[in-house]
Amino acid sequence: MNFHQHPITYVSDVTLKIEDLNRAVAFYTEVVGLKVHHQTDKTAALTADGSSVLVTLEQPDHVVPKEKNRTGLYHFALLVPKRSDLTEVVQHFVNKEVSFLAEDHLVSEALYIWDPDGNGIEIYADRDPSQWDWKNGEVAMTSDPIKTTDLLPKGEPKPWKGLPAGTIMGHIHLHVARIEAAERFYTKGLGFELVNRHNEQTIFVSDGKYHHHVALNTWQGIGAHASSPESVGLQSFSVVFPDEETRDKRLVQLEDVGASVKEENGEYVTEDPSGNQIILRHE
């Protein structure tokens, strides 16, 4: 099952604030393996397939380095189609001497790196959903380290050509101020389902029984404040609903949970209780 298309609600793209556009573009093309879709003096849109924009980089005026102990992005996660794609990324990282972490989450295998501005990036491959362990409505997940040698491709390495065209935005993981408020917003407001309560500081929500489309944590401190508009970090991310009717229903639900929704440039925009901005779209 495809968990990132109709009739599922999913995360489709992110916009990041960065300090140096040229430095960031070089990193995202040469290290991450995305391609430039289009670029201006202050922005760059990045793609894997040449068509769909996954990441947009913006260099604000008067930008300041990433502020500490704030809500916002923990990481965004690029989902590659197959495990063999992930092994090719590992070989690429090894060849370029890129520092990374590798973890087994039971539902997936994942690599973690950070861009030059400190924005977290996950690149991962899902295990077959038939292997996911569901009990009482919750999916089992963990974070066990993986040896790099276990993820290296077998046989002769292939020349690196960047991330495969089938790469999509798999999920986003956010720092929030309070778990209870975040859970209410993302479930009662946006309509996601709680699928894993890891502990008092971390929850995972999804649609269509995916392991998670959004993860939420209070690791930056309960009651943490949002970053200033000039700070490096998350500008916004998009949530895509299966149709206009579902989107409009969620707009009402968001207002019912006390969230404000406004229309900007023909799109509906809201913020979660921690100040994370979300663009509300539909198929």
UniProtKB/TrEMBL annotation:
It comes from the Bacteria. Pfam families: Glyoxalase. GO terms for molecular function: dioxygenase activity; lactoylglutathione lyase activity; metal ion binding. SUPFAM superfamilies: Glyoxalase/Bleomycin resistance protein/Dihydroxybiphenyl dioxygenase. Keywords: Dioxygenase, Metal-binding, Oxidoreductase. InterPro entries: Glyas_Bleomycin-R_OHBP_Dase (IPR029068), Glyas_Fos-R_dOase_dom (IPR004360), Glyoxalase_1_CS (IPR018146), VOC_core (IPR037523). Residues 10-126, 168-283 form the VOC domain. This is Catechol 2,3-dioxygenase. It comes from Alteribacillus iranensis.
